[in-house]
């Protein structure tokens, strides 16, 4: 019988450290501030925004949202993002992705200074993740997945980790973080043949697909660790992961639920990164 491993204790432990750091910064008259930039009204962006605002409040971190219309032109968006970046009172910026199709990522990805880029959008930080250089910012969700594995003492070294999904927000960077911890990593995607055959060999299976309950027990190995990154909000407002948890629980070793899984740790990592960015701002 598998065991549910929740995100809450992991998020609580990170939050506790963040709160101490924030208190210390404030005693030195430094007031950490996060700016969230959202284009349009995507449901999963709004869910993240709500969760992030709550977490920042818990951590005593100031947080402001810049909500831009879905149809904003690329030029106007660039001007807006530059002005947020130039604001000296802002220590970290979270820009929701994916961006609308009419905005070319390549034209905007260098705008957020690497030192303020707390969710790893700027290629400088992406390359640091590739190199295993921890002076930059890894993206929050992959980092949250690693924090869960570490908190629950899951052995990573030498193990086969199969990551389903290869986006720049989750799958690809998470594969690099697992590799850094000496996992043998296999990245799967929509063109992968025989997906089930591959995932069912995984000691650690990561589902970051965006398809509700897609991973059933025939996709997993007996006794394995299953990390469900999926956030799928149904029309009725219900939240499901990419894993059918009820179906997999018996066969798995450890398995994260949704809700109360990776998502809750993501916002805690966001707060931790904001503190790191604030400390960096003192050095520059
Ligand atoms: N918990 C959290 O904090 C967060 C959760 N999420 C959630 O994680 C999930 C993934 O997010 P994200 O990476 O941004 O999503 P994307 O849509 O950007 O990427 C999905 C990936 O899954 C692959 N894929 C799609 N269908 C299949 C399939 N049938 N079989 C195998 N692979 C498939 C795609 O392949 P291809 O590249 O070939 O198209 C792609 O690489 C979503 O549910 C999202 O809401 C995201 C961010 C944070
Ligand atoms: N640049 C960028 N980075 C992201 O990480 C990113 C993004 N864009 N765009 C949108 C998606 C979606 N996403 C969510 C994370 C947490 C909750 C969430 O609901 N969290 C709840 C708990 C959920 C749970 O309990 O599992 C909370 O923290 O309280 C929702 C959605 C991040 N994303």
UniProtKB/TrEMBL annotation:
CDD domains referenced in this protein's UniProt entry, alphabetically: NAD_bind_m-THF_DH_Cyclohyd
Domain of life, source organism: Bacteria
GO MF annotation list: methenyltetrahydrofolate cyclohydrolase activity; methylenetetrahydrofolate dehydrogenase (NADP+) activity
The keyword Cell membrane is assigned to this record: no
Pathway involvement of the protein, from the record: One-carbon metabolism; tetrahydrofolate interconversion
Sequence ranges assigned to domain Tetrahydrofolate dehydrogenase/cyclohydrolase catalytic in this UniProt record: 5-119
EC number of the protein: 1.5.1.5, 3.5.4.9
Keywords, ordered alphabetically: Amino-acid biosynthesis, Histidine biosynthesis, Hydrolase, Methionine biosynthesis, Multifunctional enzyme, NADP, One-carbon metabolism, Oxidoreductase, Purine biosynthesis
Record domain Tetrahydrofolate dehydrogenase/cyclohydrolase NAD(P)-binding: where: 139-279
Binding residue positions for NADP(+): 165-167, 231
Pfam name, any one: THF_DHG_CYH_C
Catalytic activity: (6R)-5,10-methenyltetrahydrofolate + H2O = (6R)-10-formyltetrahydrofolate + H(+); (6R)-5,10-methylene-5,6,7,8-tetrahydrofolate + NADP(+) = (6R)-5,10-methenyltetrahydrofolate + NADPH
InterPro entries membership: Aminoacid_DH-like_N_sf (IPR046346), NAD(P)-bd_dom_sf (IPR036291), THF_DH/CycHdrlase (IPR000672), THF_DH/CycHdrlase_cat_dom (IPR020630), THF_DH/CycHdrlase_NAD-bd_dom (IPR020631)
Family: Belongs to the tetrahydrofolate dehydrogenase/cyclohydrolase family.
Quaternary context: Homodimer.
Function of the protein: Catalyzes the oxidation of 5,10-methylenetetrahydrofolate to 5,10-methenyltetrahydrofolate and then the hydrolysis of 5,10-methenyltetrahydrofolate to 10-formyltetrahydrofolate.
Protein name: Bifunctional protein FolD
């Amino acid at each position: 019988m598998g065991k549910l491993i929740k995100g809450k204790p992991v998020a609580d432990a990170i939050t506790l450290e963040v709160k101490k750091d924030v208190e210390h910064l404030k005693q030195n008259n430094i007031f950490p501030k996060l700016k969230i930039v959202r284009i349009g009204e995507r449901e999963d962006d709004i869910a993240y925004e709500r969760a992030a605002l709550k977490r920042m409040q818990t951590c005593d971190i100031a947080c402001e949202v810049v909500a831009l219309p879905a149809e904003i032109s690329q030029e106007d968006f660039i001007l807006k993002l530059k002005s947020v970046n130039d604001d000296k009172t802002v220590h970290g910026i979270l820009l929701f992705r994916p961006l609308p199709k009419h905005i070319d990522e390549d034209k905007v990805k260098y705008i957020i200074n690497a030192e303020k880029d707390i969710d790893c959008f700027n290629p400088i930080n992406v390359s640091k993740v590739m190199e295993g250089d921890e002076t930059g910012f890894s993206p929050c969700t992959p980092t949250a997945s690693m924090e869960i594995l570490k908190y629950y003492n899951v052995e990573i070294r030498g193990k086969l980790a199969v990551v389903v999904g290869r986006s720049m927000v989750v799958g690809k960077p998470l594969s690099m973080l697992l590799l850094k911890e000496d996992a043998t990593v296999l990245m799967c995607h929509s063109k992968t043949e025989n997906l089930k055959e591959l995932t069912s060999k995984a000691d650690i299976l990561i589902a970051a697909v965006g398809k509700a309950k897609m991973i059933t027990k025939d996709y997993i190995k007996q006794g394995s660790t299953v990390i469900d990154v999926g956030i799928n909000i149904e029309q009725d407002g219900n939240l499901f992961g990419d894993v059918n948890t009820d179906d997999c629980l018996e066969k798995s070793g450890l398995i994260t639920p949704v809700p109360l899984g990776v998502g809750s740790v993501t916002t805690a990592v966001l707060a931790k990164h904001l503190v790191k960015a604030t400390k960096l701002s003192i050095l520059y």
